[in-house]
Amino acid sequence: MLKALFALPSTVWLLGLVSFFNDAASDLVYPLLPLYLASVLMAGPKALGIIEGIAEATGSLLKLFAGVLADKTRSTKYWVVGGYSLAALGRPFLALAGSWPTVLVLRFADRVGKGLRSSPRDAMLALSVAPHQRGLAFGFHRALDNAGAVVGPLLAAWLLYRGMPIRDILLWTLVPGVITVGLTLYIREPHREMPLHKPAFSWTMQGFPPVFKRYLLVLALFTLGNSSNMFLLLRAREMGLTESQVPLLWALASGMAMLFSTPLSALSDRLGRTRLIVGGWAVYGAFYLLLGLNGQNLWLLWPLFAFYGLFMAATEGAEKALVADLAPKELLGTAYGWFNLTAGVMLLPASVLFGWLWQTFSPEWAFGFSASCAILAAFLLKFWVPTQSGHTP
């Protein structure tokens, strides 16, 4: 495994380190934002909902836009550098905000940065490695990304424990931001063959094989049952877990994803993407069923969330590697744009539906619905989206 990792191109390593430092800064801010709005700017949940709703919706739409333009301009690096720079510069200015509309503008800028960089970055990863290395490359990238998601909240908790004011913590995000931007400047643009005709964008997805379109439909079904992870933490809190233990529970899931993303995604290079994703979605379904039916056994939460981390490790890298297996090389940026848009847009109805089922019926109904979506999606992926093992069909 180590030999295979060191054989990966420098682009993969640099993008992994970029994601680590960027996510460490981003996930340091994320848990502090509700506290900052409430205790410093005296804004409530309504303001938080407006901020996050507008920011996330914008980011999802821009992922498609940036992917299309990356294909048209035959360039991915400038989008990656620009996207990470926008986010890195915006976070420290949160400390200077005097009202929640200012926070909205800065969070908007942060999500715009994510929207501009995500699809070109994924295309850059896919173009930088051979087909038999895609699972390993995307898994390694997700491992470092999840490592940042572990380090960020733990660092925020430690700084708060030491008594550092929230404004000062936000200012310190400039340090990992500068490192992030500096690393992106060293990334090399991967070689792309010049097509005979520049790809034209089509809302009907002309130029993509039917198998890729079916994959997106199945992904949309799975995502319909994949609501916000905040519901998982709410369930744990409702069952009686203390407030101080809830972040540790999520850190456990992220830690498991960090440890197992690389080996499990690399396994998809040998066993095939579909097998690994189907297995991961089945684990997801079992997790949701057990969490929904478990009403009293607090000790069971810890192995269950570790189990959830394995689902993340098995699917996050393999799902993205499968995009490169199914899509034409000259349309990779657009393909990742459609992939990210599908996953992003479906999160809103998924969370609304999950919350409605929980409040109208019971948590068991909500978790049962999500588990059903996952199992049905796994079945369709297995029998309706035929692929060859690890390579382009």
UniProtKB/TrEMBL annotation:
Domain Major facilitator superfamily (MFS) profile residues, every copy: 11-389
Record field: transmembrane: 169-187, 215-234, 246-266, 272-291, 335-358, 365-385
One Pfam family it belongs to: MFS_1
Gene3D superfamilies to which the protein is assigned, alphabetical: MFS general substrate transporter like domains
Molecular function in Gene Ontology: transmembrane transporter activity
Record's keyword annotation contains Membrane: yes
Alphabetized InterPro entries for the sequence: MFS, MFS_dom, MFS_trans_sf
Keyword tags: Membrane, Transmembrane, Transmembrane helix
Keyword Protein transport: no
PANTHER family for the chain: C-METHYLTRANSFERASE, MAJOR FACILITATOR SUPERFAMILY TRANSPORTER
Annotated protein name in UniProt: Major facilitator superfamily MFS_1
